[in-house]
Specification:
By secondary structure, this protein is of the alpha+beta class. Helix content is 68%, strand content 11%. It folds into 2 domains: 208 residues, Cation efflux protein transmembrane domain (Alpha-lytic protease prodomain-like, Up-down Bundle); 79 residues, Cation efflux protein, cytoplasmic domain (Alpha-Beta Plaits). Helix 2 runs parallel beside helix 6 and helix 4 packs antiparallel against helix 5. The longest helix has 39 residues.
Length: 298
């Protein structure tokens, strides 16, 4: 048991070290891209830099949120701190939306006021960025599987790699064909991809924060399954929500035929909820068919 705990502790330490390294790399990369973008006049390079900056920020927020989420529940936070990472994910996604809108604004402004771009500077800085983006994506991938916040961060890094590749293509086309408009077009593409990411991830985070029903569970299915248990007449006043992306909760009123069957039925309901719907926490209030009893079974 002690060995398992020690191993888990080591895994967490490795994850934190990797994320910290990813933050440092991304901040250095962002600085290099901004300087390179200003010197070369490339809006696409600055766009990629802002995207990288948002990734570094999301990593910092994710690390802080993960630390907070491990705290035990107490009298002031009876549900615990698990939603800290969901709040962090929501914050990062809103930041992405702001960055995406800003980039679109800058791209359209560049249509009206074209600026000279140093192609070689763009290619050199973007090539460095591509390498670092791939390394950062590798660092974040190992801690992205069980957290929506980390998943958002990994996807950002992966998209950064594609964005850097697009910027390199832009620089080559500018050098060989003087196609300066490619820089603006690629900026719009990067911004569109950023907004697309936010669009795909925001509904899930908002649903959790709004205590919405998990998307993979239908209340009607829960009702039918519970009512199929012999001895249960009805289940109503059903409240089903997510504490975070991994924990589903339910509370409901259950109408039973016989009072003496209450404990056995409670066990049956809880087993069904956990096996069929992955609901591990349920609070049930039992009522008799003909007269109600005010008795809570947690």
């Amino acid at each position: 048991m002690g060995h398992t705990h020690h191993h888990h502790h080591n895994v967490e330490d490795v994850g934190i070290k990797r994320l910290t390294l990813a933050v440092i790399i991304n901040l250095l990369l962002t600085l290099a891209q901004i300087v390179g973008g200003i010197l070369s006049g490339s809006l696409a390079l600055i766009a990629d830099a802002l995207h990288n900056l948002s990734d570094a920020s999301s990593l910092v927020i994710a690390l802080i949120a993960r630390k907070i989420s491990t705290k035990e529940h107490n009298d002031s936070m009876t549900f615990g701190y698990k939603r800290a990472e969901v709040i962090a994910a929501f914050t990062n996604l809103i930041t992405l939306v702001i960055v995406g809108i800003y980039l679109i604004y800058e791209a359209f402004w560049r249509f009206y006021q074209p600026a000279p771009i140093a192609g070689w500077m763009v290619i050199i800085v973007a090539t460095i960025a591509l390498f670092i983006d791939v390394v950062t994506a590798f660092l974040t991938h190992s801690v992205s599987k069980n957290s929506i916040n980390m998943r958002v961060t990994f996807l950002h890094n992966l998209s950064d790699a594609f964005a850097s590749l697009a910027v390199i293509i832009s620089g080559i086309l500018i050098l060989n064909y003087n196609l300066y408009i490619v820089d603006t077009i690629l900026t719009l593409l990067i911004a569109s991809y950023v907004l697309y990411q936010a669009y795909t991830m925001l509904p899930q985070t908002i649903n959790i924060l709004m205590q919405g029903t998990p998307k993979n569970i239908a209340v009607e299915d829960v009702k039918k399954s519970v009512e199929s248990i012999n001895g249960i007449s009805n289940i109503h006043h059903i409240h089903l929500w997510q504490m975070d992306e991994h924990h589903n909760s339910l509370e409901a009123h259950v109408v039973i035929d016989k009072l003496e069957d209450m404990l056995a039925l409670k066990r049956s309901i809880k087993e069904l909820l956990e096996k069929q719907f992955a609901i591990k926490h349920s609070t049930l209030e039992f009522e008799l068919t003909n007269c109600k009893i005010e008795h809570y079974i947690n």
